[in-house]
Design goal:
The chain is of the alpha+beta class. Helix content is about 50%, strand content about 20%. The radius of gyration is 13 Å and the shape is globular.
Length: about 90
């Protein structure tokens, strides 16, 4: 699983809060994931993200413009296997 947190240099406290919440959610679930904090404006434009911070799980936008709480991130991670099975059925 890959988790990207898109940020800008303007709001470092919001970005760090998102990183901390993601790490805490991963610890609660006992899940291993690659967590990347990205400050690249080009990647934000590619994903059509105009507000930060933005949370992407496996290149799917989950939250933009606010710091998600730990419970919300836990729900995003917990529903991921269900999403992957639905995609496999369609393909």
């Amino acid at each position: 699983m890959r988790i990207d947190i898109l940020c800008t240099q303007d709001y470092p406290e919001r970005c760090q809060g998102t990183v901390d919440n993601v790490r805490e959610a991963l610890d609660q679930l006992g899940v291993q994931a690659e967590v990347h904090q990205i400050n690249d404006a080009r990647k934000m434009i590619d994903h059509r993200i105009y507000v930060v911070p933005a949370l992407l799980i496996d290149d799917q936008l989950r939250v933009a413009g606010r710091v998600p709480d730990v419970g919300e991130i836990v729900n995003f991670i917990a529903e991921r296997p269900r999403y992957m099975s639905e995609v496999a059925q369609v393909a």
